[in-house]
Design a protein that fits this description.
The protein contains five helices and eleven strands. It is of the alpha+beta class. The C terminus is likely disordered.
């Protein structure tokens, strides 16, 4: 017996193809609004669930850029790696400086309050990111500027922002990704050379994808939400 179906009247637009070029292209500085700053997870090919920070930005003409700062469940993610006798920032340092950089672009007081709230406490990555997201809620849909580079496949990517200048010293922000002042964003000589190299390659058929660059974060020792937020839902934040 044949199955019958009933078609309703279409209420969406009359386009029958995907919108082209819906992502911001690499190697440019854009005026955007941050539309997402939140804890999120992704699942790897082997089924492993990774937690991290998900951020999205959108331009006035509705083009997007999104990036995910990964987390992995390994203790060594708290430790620095050595490359050519130089210390690289730990995966935790990359996460912390990314959060500080993004929120600090809007209001440095948010960073100071978050650092004070977690000082001396053992918190999970989820607790840390969700605390930062409380501050970031005040930054959503506000105008800012971001610098987008291309990764090795020339897909739009967030530049690496953290550096250890001398072994044993504190990791610092060495490359601006976001600012409310466009004059604070510029491409380094290395980035300009990389952009030229990519432009001379055969063009990619896909303009960009969500950034899944190798920016990892660790899990911290689990603790209760009450410990993090001072025993109540009132954490002393003005938001």
């Amino acid at each position: 017996m044949a199955i019958q179906v009933t078609f309703g009247t279409e209420t969406q637009n009359n386009s029958y193809e995907a919108a082209a070029g819906n992502y911001l292209k690499p190697w440019n500085i854009y005026e955007v609004k941050m539309t997402k700053f939140a804890y999120d997870t992704v699942t790897g090919k082997d089924g492993t669930v990774y937690e991290g920070l998900s951020m999205e930005f959108e331009s006035e003409d509705n083009k997007k850029f999104d990036t995910f700062v990964y987390g992995v469940n390994k203790q060594e993610d708290l430790e620095r790696r050595i490359y050519n006798d130089r210390e690289m920032p730990s995966q935790f340092e990359v996460l912390r400086l990314t959060i500080n950089h993004v929120l600090g672009a809007f209001n440095v007081n948010y960073v100071e309050k978050i650092n004070k709230a977690v000082a001396g406490k053992q918190v999970t990555i989820r607790q840390y990111i969700e605390l930062a997201a409380k501050a970031a809620a005040n930054c959503l849909n506000k105008t800012c500027y971001i610098k987008i580079i291309g990764n090795n496949s020339n897909y739009s990517s967030m530049p690496r922002i953290a550096t250890v200048w001398n072994n044993g010293e504190e990791a610092v922000i060495s490359n601006n990704f976001i600012s409310t002042d466009k004059s604070k964003l510029s491409f380094s000589n290395y980035e300009l050379r990389k952009a030229k190299e990519m432009q001379e390659r055969k063009p990619q058929t896909v303009e960009t994808t969500a950034n899944t660059d190798n920016m990892f974060i660790p899990n911290a020792v689990s603790n209760s939400d009450d410990d993090l937020f001072g025993g109540s839902s009132d954490n002393g934040f003005p938001f």
